[in-house]
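This section describes the prediction task in plain terms. A model, or a person checking by hand, is given the sequence of a single protein chain and must write out its three-dimensional structure as a string of tokens. No templates, partner chains or ligands are provided. The sample shown here is typical of the held-out split.
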Amino acid sequence: MMNTASKLNMTAPCHFGLEKTLSFEIRRAGGENLEITDGRINFEGMPEVLVRANISCSAAERIGVILARFKAYSFDDVFEHIKRIPVSDFLDKNAAFPVTKGQSVNSKLTSIPALQRTVKKALAEAMSSVYKTNTLPETGAVFPVRFFLHKDEMTVFIDSSGEGLHKRGYRRHSGIAPIKETLAAGIIDIAKVRESDCIIDPFCGSGTILIESAFKALKIPPGMNRSFAAEKWDLFPAKLWAEQRENLRAGIIKDTEFKVFGYDIDPDCVKLTLENAKKAGVEKYITAETRAIKDFNLDITRFSKIITNPPYAERLLEKSDTEQIYREMGEKFFCENHHREMYIITSDMEFEDYFGRKAKKNRKLYNGMLMCRLYMYV
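The expected answer:
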């Protein structure tokens, strides 16, 4: 097995458009030699970097340990490269190594099930060769294997996170069409949310933007209260996880008047927001009330930032309904007596027309498979 003094080659996928945000987080976690591509960052680091990245990165979908990278134009290429992986660096003879998921983008090999079977068969042959056995019980620790094929270059990696990093542990239930935690965190980072800000979400849903804003402003690591697949691997002893959690916990801001305000027309969403805030441990910073956008009234005098994921036709409503909502937003959000920034994500490319003002800038982001734009009024 690889010892804890060895550097690891790692990979961290993210939402398209959040690569810059994630690169900052990877560097803060101690990652080195970053290679930034669309929707993914490869980097190097000691085992403690992997632990810290899992706990602290808000925009990463997961953190993987790279087993191999190679050109793959055929299934024979995949098989031959993978069977030469030095599997004993990570896997003992009892290790379970399910090939859980994969992606293929702009590549000759497109069948994910066929690729999964090939990867599994090749890894099994590598294990059998190293451990001189034809029997692989897979009764030990679980090492989920994933792959990513992009322009015929294949990356095979072990998923150290287990459940996706967007699963912070606070949102067991959600409203209709919620924004993913990692995407919300990326938008909040783009908005440069700080402890001195007042954050407002007029369409709070299940509270994701509010909670992620509190995490960011107060330097609360989003993965502090969840577990990870790598915690059961010998390479990452419990002491290492405990040390990194303690180091990160020491940086949390506690004595602060930071506040976020959420509103929603649905009282069940407001209730869910408050429940999720309590699970996340940030309930004292969050106020949520039932209020329609037509009744929105900003009576807060301090500097504020509106960050919101309003309804759009593909998510919830008919287009005529969303057009009316956007008009009401434009009427309510602009007020000469208050200085505020606004960050609004929607898939409606005509949003600015209905809102009544052109954004100073916008950025293309993906909410799941749906192409959206983040309109920034700064």
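For orientation: The first helix runs from residue 19 to 28.
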